[in-house]
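Fold sample X.
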Amino acid sequence: MANRKIILPQYGTVMKRGVLYYRTRIKDANGKLVAIYAKTPEELYNKETLALEQIENATFHRKTPTVAEYCEKWLLMQSVHVRATTLTDYTSKVRRHIIAELGDKRMGEVSLDDIQLALVPVSKKSASVYKSVVILYKSIFRAAMESRIIDHNPTIYLTTKGGGVPQEERQALTDEQVERLLDAIRDLPPYVFVMIGLYAGLRREEILALQWDSVYLDTDTPYLTVRRAWHTEHNRPVISDELKTKAAERNIPLPVCLAECLKAAKETSTSEYVVSNRDGEPLSYTQFKRLWQYIVTRTVKERSYYRYEDGKRVKHTVTPVLGEKAAHNGKVVYSLDFEVTPHQLRHTYITNLIHASVDPKTVQYLAGHESSKITMDIYAKVKYNRPNELVRSMNCAFASWDAAQ
């Protein structure tokens, strides 16, 4: 088929320094007339076509919503099909790490360089936080691309590899540390929480949502049922029947020490919640932090606080010494030379199950792991991190083989 002949428009001409130029005018993205010059009509036509394409793209980008506007819309769309706790996590990360950095830019103007620069502060956080923020970036811009909000996706080559600070491998508490921890907080508010974490392996959100109607102490084999989850919105507690995964709903048998602890707690409880505030309500986030502070203040970890002296805010640093009493509170004794986190209680429970030779599928059920890979990763690290036991197992495995040689 023969090439179609392009009919060139009629252009005006103008003399500039003795040279004849063809000229036309077009409106730029701001509506301002701009003159274009060329020595031939063909050259001017090509220049005009290219300029119009560039103006069209600029106009399109300018019409796209800002990153802040589209992110809020995306979060609203996610609210239809994700758990409330997941949406809370998304919202916090999107607003803190995406909107705060790029919120004023138009979606169509964001480049890969813009995103990588915005990720610099996130790279100083944990690898898991970095990975989740990158995934959010990719999800948001992919959705915008699929909805034709933007004409290119700047996150195509964005990767989660190598970003963030690697987290230290979780360590379970030793038997001696468990004993010292329980002695340090006995009869204090966090005691029941810690006991449930250590001897039932519940997640924090599962413990704080646990109600007495899910604790069965009068059966031949006492047990509790995980059926609710706790999270907070604007520091207010929200109790939901929607658990992290389907596997999170489970029945957990109670060892004698935990059953006795819960019986004693129930006798004095005036709340429907196993762990509650003074009003019998579930804890807010601030109240939980205050609860955990009973443990933190009994560790020898160096910490700072501020006091106003002569109208000035003065920083003071405390370096606790094991066995000594706190300077401003004689009831507090620095008795813990190790740090404790809420998740560490659960990890200790799972570790103890593995050391007790509980089979992996049972460990998976009791831990409420949806994926067997999560369980097996922990199982492998714990089970085979004792060289002496591993050598004995290998000797037994190859004993019959050696005898046959």
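Fold sample Y, listed below.
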Amino acid sequence: MFFTITNYGRKGWIFGDIGCRLILTFDLMTMHVSVYILSVMSVERYVAVVHPMRSLRYRSPVCARRLNVAVWVLSLLLVSPCIFGMRQITGVQPNGEPFQTCSWTLGEPRVMHMYMTAMCFTSFLIPSCGYVNRV
């Protein structure tokens, strides 16, 4: 929503340098947390149905808390480059008027492409592989 607002606004990015870093970081982090929590829930349900007796060892509030903490820490680690890579920069519109934009500034443009490819793998491709049940 923040990027849509600023893309259609005349002045560009209005949330400052800190907002540039935090908004994208929180956006990506909550995306990863959602994907991973749903993946953990799916695996837990699979194990509970297929191996009901063995799964009792792992189905406890302590284990659930540990998994939740692990998911949040993993998500924070995966999006930490956004904290260092995103910056508010000043550009010039075609009419010569200056504007602010939130942009990736860490290394060359290919670094951002590599990071976004890694995000695709960690947030979509790997979690969607799932378990294949052989008959």
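Sample Y note: The mean pLDDT is 84.
Also: The two ends are 45 Å apart (CA to CA).
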